[in-house]
């Protein structure tokens, strides 16, 4: 997704407290001019407004942590449990994982755990494997594994299994969103309401209990500005509206 992807919105964000020009400039320097510059462009050069947008980006990133956390853990454990039932607890060392980057992750996890003199149990190993490891298990490389075993990890409301691509495609984008949040990158130009709903829908399919917990504890809907917010598109020279309610 590029920074040119916008959606409709309306009302501006209300600043929490007025900040002095000097303080805004100091914050700009501390955050890095390159990072903050994107927000300045979206605010049409208004640095106080840019800081509001930066704060909003941070707030929305924080609010998405719970649903992303729930989805990642539910996916990891559903895949692991399905593979344990079909193969063995150490299935990730049993020749089933074929891609080099995944094998490298497993080897690094084993090494890191063993350095501390701790027994590298399956539970400790899978906890070290990244979200990309688990989403890759749903890629085309493992189509045969999906048909034999992994199709059991999720079901639709009518009880039918998902097609593999119905999970792998949105999960690839969700992983990008997760990584942008983890690296403190801008996400406010994304269609965040859409992707929040996508995260929740996938979590319902994988683990209704986790989805219910996420629904009860999430703050995203509460902190998303009512009416949305506007971003300026410097490429067209015209204001563009983003993030509708």
Structural topology:
Elements (H helix, E strand, L loop, with lengths): L20 H11 L1 H10 L4 H17 L1 H22 L13 H16 L6 H7 L2 H6 L6 H6 L15 H19 L9 H15 L1 H10 L2 H4 L5 E5 L4 E5 L3
Write structural notes for this entry.
- Helix content is 58%, strand content 4%.
- The chain has 12 helices and 2 strands, in the order ααααααααααααββ.
- The protein has helices at residues 21-31, 33-42, 47-63, 65-86, 100-115, 122-128, 131-136, 143-148, 164-182, 192-206, 208-217, 220-223; strands at 229-233, 238-242.
- A two-stranded antiparallel ribbon has the order 1-2.
- Helix 4 (65-86) packs parallel to helix 10 and helix 5 packs across helix 6.
- The chain is globular, with a radius of gyration of 21 Å.
Descriptors for this entry?
mainly alpha; two-stranded antiparallel sheet; 58% helix
β-strand number? 2
Output the helix-strand order: HHHHHHHHHHHHEE
Share in helix: 55-70%
Structural class: mainly alpha
- Strand percent estimate: under 5%
Q: Give a short account of the largest sheet.
A: 2 strands, antiparallel
Query: Which blocks of ≥5 consecutive residues have pLDDT under 50?
Result: 1-16, 237-241
Rounded to an integer, what's the Rg over CA atoms? Answer: 21 Å
The main sheet orders its strands as 1-2
**How large is the count of helical segments?**
12
In round numbers, the mean pLDDT is 87
How far do the termini sit from each other? 20 Å
Brief rundown of the structure:
The chain is mainly alpha-helical. It has twelve helices and two strands, in the order H-H-H-H-H-H-H-H-H-H-H-H-E-E.
